[in-house]
Structures are given as structure tokens and as C-alpha cells.
Write a structure and sequence with these properties.
Shape: globular
Number of domains: 3
Number of strands: 18
Number of helices: 7
Radius of gyration: 28 Å
Largest sheet: 6 strands, antiparallel
Helix content: 25-40%
Distance between the termini: 56 Å
Oligomer: single chain
Length: 390
């Protein structure tokens, strides 16, 4: 039984099936971008184990095709198993072994990049200092305890947890948060403009004066979902239970946090882009933007900043510009863009633990192909010398 299974996972037929499935998945996923957009297609088709139908349904769904992670994982296992099955050490096969090893590293590196890499951005105005970057798509609900004047205690609840709904009880909070409604994409309107049947989204704060309606997911490349939620601040059951502050609307469309009091302490609520804090900070000293003479076409833009890392006792000036990123503590800071009127620079921050895999794989494959070509060429010269043409 084990022998048959090993024959199956190392067979050439499985390789052809996986490659064919990958081609079909790319073709169908490309067409699906018209309706769902590139980011949604990446999640549903290429960053999943299976493709479900119907895609937008929240009820019963049926798996209809293997997803990108499943195809890539099976292809990686197939390649490793085929190499182990046919492995026979000899100098004449060294180039083939190196080529296979390079392909295995390339596939594994691509899979690890898709699973563990994180892309975010850092917006910096001149003179501003930040020790965190922000996710361009994911959001989080933050609950801030503002009772201490020296520091603030911030509790962050990720979007994925809000999406599941239900009751959220955390040790850092003296109350529970009950998610009454979650909107992946929404629209907020004042009650007097939302129509005669409009009802307030919540009982307190801004939500008491606006109505919220759910919208389809954003599909354009430069558009994003406006995540909103209606939450209830509920006391923890027990003696001397304080009254509930009611329900609140939290949304990315609200620019300022909402405040309430509970158990004699002031609290703030806000929905913001998810943050990734770092053990170092960047301070923007100067941002420069050059254009081609007589046009508004960008020629070069650069950010001069100061990197400060107290943990490593390091403080130095860095220059980040096009094709010359800053690499520090496993993260890469690219000069991505800037805001209108050059009020701030935008740095793309990429954490990719397997960034070296493609470079290493290309070198190994190149060496393997060069060795194999040289080996056969030398053998050809030897045979020609031994048996000269008549």
C-alpha cells in the first residue's frame, strides 16, 4: 500500500495533472477579476486550498476545484518524491540533481512567501516619527484606556475576529464586546438623507445619527472595502454590575475616535488600519521629488530619514529612494510613493522570511544547467578525439 502511494505521488502523471490544473486556475482566476477584483481573486483562487461555489454565498458552499495552495503543495511533494525515487548518485547526473534542487527551493520559497510574507505601508510627514507600519487592507478595532496621563493601554481586535461575530471577552478589558452586525463593505449616511425608513445604526455616538447599509465588495484595484461594525459594550456578569453604555458604530469612515465612560474610566473606540509595531523607529528628515524637465512625470523621489533602534543602541541616517530600499531586521522599506503636494512620503514595508529563496534557486539551477552542459560537451570532445571523423 505504501509502495503504491509513493509511486502515485512521484509519478509523472501527477505532475502533468498539477500543471494542467494550475493553468486552468490561472485562466479562470484571471476572468474572475472582472467581477471580484484582484485582491478577492487572490484570496479565493490562489491563496486557498479549494475554490468554493457559489463564491459569494455565506451558506452552503461546494468545493469545485483545487486552490493555489493545494496545487502548489502537491506539486512540491511530487517533485521531491520523484527526485528521491530516481536519485542515483553519479557525477554525470550532478547537474540534473542541482536543477531539481533549485526547482524545489523555488517552489518551497514561493509557498512560504505566500503564507508568511506581510506587506504594509508607512506614511511619514517631514519631522514625523513612527515605529509601526499599517496594513493597506486589513483593519482592527482598538479600545483605548485613557485614564492614565502617562501612557495609554490599547487593545486591538483584528478584523477576522470581528467578522465571526459573537461575544469578545479579553482580560485587558473590564467589559465584553458583543458584535451585533459586521459589514465587510458599507456606506454611512445621515439619517435625514438615508430615506424615510432609515433607522439609526447604534444607540450612542455617531451611530445614533447615521444609517449604515451593506455594499458589495470593492473590485477596483485602487479601491478598498469600508469595514464597519455595530458593537455593544456589555458589563461582565457579577455583583454591582454597572449599566451598559449601549451600542456603538465603528467604521473606517469615521475620522475621530468615539468616547464613553465605564466603571469611572474614559475609553475610546476606533476602527483603523491594522498596525505592525517594530522595535525601532524612523524619523523623516526630508523628502525630495524630481521631475523630468518641462513635465510632471516623476523622475526620482527619495526619503532621507533617521533610524533609531534603542535595543541595539543604533542611530543613523538612511536614504531610501527608487530601487535602493532600506533592509533592516528582516524587513525591506521601499520608496513607494508620496501624497499630493508632497505633504508626506509613503514607504512600502515588506516582511518576507524566504526572500532569498528565488535568488538561491536561480543560482543553483544555473550552476546545474551549466555543469550538465559542460559535462556533455566534454564527453562529446572525448568521443570525437577517440573516434575521429573519417
Amino acid at each position: 500500500m505504501a509502495h503504491r502511494f509513493f509511486d502515485f505521488i512521484s509519478s509523472l502523471k501527477l505532475t502533468i495533472v498539477c500543471l494542467s490544473a494550475a493553468m486552468i486556475l490561472v485562466f479562470v482566476g484571471t476572468l474572475a477579476q472582472v467581477n471580484f477584483g484582484i485582491h478577492e481573486v487572490q484570496e479565493r483562487y490562489f491563496q486557498s486550498l479549494v475554490v468554493w461555489w457559489p463564491a459569494g454565498s455565506q451558506g452552503l458552499r461546494i468545493p469545485v476545484f483545487p486552490g493555489g495552495h493545494l496545487i502548489g503543495g502537491v506539486l512540491l511533494v511530487n517533485l521531491v518524491a520523484a527526485h528521491l525515487r530516481r536519485f542515483r548518485w553519479s557525477w554525470s547526473k550532478l547537474g540534473i540533481h542541482l536543477t531539481h534542487a533549485g526547482l524545489i527551493i523555488l517552489l518551497a520559497g514561493g509557498l512560504f512567501t505566500d503564507l508568511f510574507s506581510v506587506e504594509s505601508f508607512m506614511r511619514l510627514a517631514p519631522g514625523e516619527t513612527k515605529n509601526y507600519s499599517e496594513d493597506s487592507r486589513a483593519v482592527e478595532l482598538v479600545v483605548v484606556d485613557g485614564s492614565d496621563k502617562e501612557f495609554e493601554q490599547v487593545t486591538a481586535i483584528p478584523e477576522e475576529r470581528l467578522k465571526r461575530g459573537g461575544t469578545i471577552a479579553l482580560a485587558s478589558l473590564p467589559f465584553r464586546i458583543i458584535v451585533r452586525h459586521f459589514y465587510q463593505n458599507s456606506q454611512l449616511q445621515p439619517l435625514d438623507q438615508a430615506g424615510p425608513n432609515a433607522v439609526p445604526a447604534a444607540s450612542q455616538g455617531v451611530g445614533a445619527r447615521v444609517a449604515v447599509s451593506e455594499l458589495p465588495r470593492a473590485t477596483a484595484q485602487n479601491e478598498g472595502d469600508l469595514v464597519s461594525a455595530v458593537i455593544e459594550i456589555a458589563p461582565v456578569p457579577g455583583p454591582d454590575v454597572p449599566p451598559s453604555p449601549g451600542t456603538w458604530l465603528v467604521s473606517g469612515q469615521l475620522d475621530t475616535p468615539q468616547t464613553f465612560s465605564f466603571a469611572g474610566k474614559p475609553w475610546r473606540l476606533a476602527m483603523r488600519q491594522a498596525r505592525y509595531y517594530k522595535p525601532f523607529s524612523l524619523t523623516l528628515k526630508k523628502f525630495t521629488h524630481e521631475r523630468y524637465p518641462g513635465t510632471q512625470i516623476p523622475k526620482n523621489f527619495a526619503s532621507s530619514a533617521t533610524l533609531n533602534d534603542p535595543e541595539r543602541n543604533e542611530s543613523r541616517d538612511v536614504l531610501i529612494y527608487m530601487n535602493h530600499p532600506l533592509r533592516y531586521r528582516g524587513e525591506t522599506f521601499f520608496q513607494s510613493g508620496f501624497e499630493e503636494n508632497e505633504a508626506a512620503t509613503i514607504l512600502q514595508v515588506v516582511y518576507n522570511p524566504s526572500f532569498i529563496a528565488p535568488y538561491l534557486a536561480c543560482v543553483i539551477v544555473g550552476v546545474g544547467l551549466l555543469f550538465q552542459l559542460t559535462w556533455h560537451f566534454v564527453g562529446f570532445l572525448r568521443r570525437r578525439k577517440t573516434h575521429p571523423a573519417k
